[in-house]
Amino acid sequence: MTAINPVDERTELLIGEEGLQRLRAATVLVAGLGGVGGAAAESLARAGVGRLILLDHDTFAASNLNRQLLSTREVLGRGKAEVAVERLASIRDDIELVPSADFLDVSGVEVFLDRHQPDFVADCIDSIAVKARLLAVAREQGRGTFTALGAGNRLDPRRMQVGRLDQVHGCGLGAVLRRKLRKAGAPVDFPVVYSTEAPRKPAPHQPTDDGSQPRAVNGTISYLPNLFGHVVAGEIIRRLLDGEG
């Protein structure tokens, strides 16, 4: 019998040695390392997923401190992927952590997935176009996915739901994502976590530094994005243990 890493003693009591081995053999891409993705990455690492691809081109800002687990005053201005690797490596040293600060655009999704070969994609990104392409290509390639929809402008954790994208109601992000996928001829039955709570109004649209279309700024609270992220990780872990794609 293989010796159990002390980090995994309590996990092994729950899922057994075979379960630990299933997680250790898995590769998961965490796309986006903000409030949702940072929590997802940490839960996946603590559970013992053997290889994590940690994707985010962004850096930490002071406005992230209210909700993003990876964000502290000491890391402001640093890249999220780099910081994620440092934090997760401080938790355990027996998994492979692959940082990627690439800016993932629609045209690069297929190449990125081919390069890293994830078994599962934890989709925690905001860009609708890239989100839709990532899901469509992952499905075409036979990879599992789990997606986080909108946690912004909401407060009530009791309104969280796990379901399918084609069954989601009351989530603007979900509606736009469905339209993008259908327009591309892709399926819309992807598993998602979402909220049935009616969102509060965002702040007025703000100009962007790169000259792209002005964006509305969503209000956020400390716990809800993190809860979404833990659900994303939990659903991926459950599916890996069950042998689902």
Please give a quick description of this structure.
38% of the residues lie in helices and 17% in strands. It has seven helices and nine strands, in the order αβαβαβαβαββαβββα.
List the keywords:
245 residues; alpha/beta; Rossmann fold; 38% helix; single chain; 7 helices; two-stranded antiparallel ribbon; globular; 7-stranded mixed β-sheet
Would you write up a description of this structure?
The protein has 245 residues and is of the alpha/beta class. The chain has a single domain (6-242), classed as NAD(P)-binding Rossmann-like Domain (Rossmann fold, 3-Layer(aba) Sandwich), CATH 3.40.50. 38% of the residues lie in helices and 17% in strands. It has seven helices and nine strands, in the order H-E-H-E-H-E-H-E-H-E-E-H-E-E-E-H. The two termini are 28 Å apart. 41% of the residues are buried. The mean pLDDT is 94.
Order of helices and strands: HEHEHEHEHEEHEEEH
**CATH C-level name:** Alpha Beta
Terminal CA distance: 28 Å
CATH superfamily: NAD(P)-binding Rossmann-like Domain
Widest sheet: strand order? 3-2-1-4-5-7-6
Q: State the shape.
A: globular
The third-level CATH topology is Rossmann fold
The biggest beta sheet is recorded as: 7 strands, mixed
**Would you report the number of β strands?**
9
Strand content: 15-25%
pLDDT < 50 runs, ≥5 residues: none
CATH architecture: 3-Layer(aba) Sandwich
Number of domains: 1
The overall pLDDT average reads 94
Structural class: alpha/beta
Number of helices: 7
Helix content, binned percent: 25-40%
Radius of gyration: 17 Å
